[in-house]
Amino acid sequence: MSNESTKNKICVVIGASHAGVNFAFSLRKEGWEGAIILFDKDPILPYHRPPLSKAYLTSEDGIDKNLLKAKESYEKDAITLDLGTTINAINREEKTVILNNGKSQAYDKLVIATGARPIIPPIPGIDTATNLYPLRTAQDVENIRKAFNASSKKRVIIIGGGYIGLETAASIKKLGGTVTVLEREERVLARVTAPEMSSFFQDLHAKNGVDILTRKNVVSIETTNNTNIINCGDSSNFEADIIIVGVGIRVNTELAQEAGITIENGIPVDETACTNDPNIYSIGDCTYHFNPHYERHIRLESVQNAVDQAKVAAASICGKSTIYNTIPWFWSDQYDIKLQMVGLSQGFNQIIIREEESENTKFSIWYFNNDELLAVDGINNAKAYVLGTKFIKGKNKIDKSKLADSSVPFKPANLLVS
């Protein structure tokens, strides 16, 4: 698509988080000369989400310290921000989106970056609980901060021991709260990491004064005089002034589905991030895409995926040949620990743990399916993350005995099977 042919075109983006914002600026950079309109129901200028459960929660900063782009950047690139607006429907035949005020907006290209929302489980009493919040938006953080500052006892129960739950636990502890994490599974992070890493994080939180209790299935919540009693299936119960729910997310596919776009574990897209409608693309947490390296379809909830898909979609819309083929990566900060992860560990049948000589905790877990390296988790170990990325991309064969031996210098030449 030449610049000339985009002058009078309109690209509409639904969702102004990492995917939508990065797409808008990438589209302009790729040469799109027509209008770019970003809609989002959140009235706040688009912001970074990962710090919400970490540094942002523990600071007193306003969201302006956490913005994805300054307001002037949108003006400079002629990107129209329409915030606090919900899209009610997509009309594919007329190529319009219907806004919550009844107006419609025409598009030539539409990008769905609707992301996901937190699951609020159907627990009896959850609707009437006092000071119960998810942690997904800046407003959620504001609500938690206010409730925490107003509470005299500051007893916080976190339902869910995934990364959001654990990061929030570390942040609340830093603020001086009494924190208990209730996890339904037999270990924290059960779906995403090896038992050894689960044990490490459970011990880390215990050392920092956070109680993590596993096999705790919350069955009801009773609220009296601003105190919540959380009842579990094993007859145990816990008092809480504040409850934070972090049990997972639900992908926002309803708009796409009602418009007749194919849905399967999210919104399926091709290697250019295009849906089954050639004029509609989808990017970010809500998409289900094929990963060439792992040779299977995946749905990723990560900033890396959002940003990379945004760039691919922008290039494709501007007529440039490009495909999405990257190795996923993630990170988590808890206390003085930085976890960096690369790859997808599902399907591993062996792990190698490499401990490094260091004043601080420093090790890595390497996930293999036979001789194939699938993923690496590095604790305070950027080098493991970098080498892991290189080895996974190269499909290199690794000498596992040397990898496990920390006396062997941590260099490709020493670790690869020639």
Q: Specify the helix fraction band.
A: 25-40%
Derived from helix and strand composition plus strand pairing, the structural class reads alpha/beta
Strand proportion, as a percent range, falls in 25-35%
> In the CATH hierarchy, what is the superfamily of the largest domain?
FAD/NAD(P)-binding domain
- Alpha-carbon distance between the termini? 46 Å
CATH-derived architecture of the largest domain: 3-Layer(bba) Sandwich
Mean pLDDT: 95
Instruction: Name the shape in a single word.
Output: globular
Number of structural domains: 3
Low-confidence spans: none
Say what the CATH topology of the largest domain is: FAD/NAD(P)-binding domain
Task: State the total count of DSSP E strands.
Answer: 26
Question: Can you tell me the CATH class of the largest domain?
Answer: Alpha Beta
Lateral strand order in the biggest sheet: 3-2-1-7-19
Q: Helical segment tally?
A: 12
* CA-based gyration radius: 23 Å
Main beta-sheet annotation? 5 strands, parallel
Task: Tag the structure with descriptive keywords.
single chain; 418 residues; FAD/NAD(P)-binding domain; Enolase-like, domain 1; five-stranded parallel beta sheet; 26% helix; 29% strand
Structure summary:
The chain has twelve helices and 26 strands. By secondary structure, the chain is an alpha/beta fold.
Structure in words:
This protein has 418 residues and is α/β, with parallel strands linked by helices. It folds into 3 domains: 182 residues, FAD/NAD(P)-binding domain (3-Layer(bba) Sandwich), CATH 3.50.50.60; 116 residues, 3-Layer(bba) Sandwich (FAD/NAD(P)-binding domain); 80 residues, Enolase-like, domain 1, CATH 3.30.390. It has 12 helices and 26 strands. The radius of gyration is 23 Å and the shape is globular.
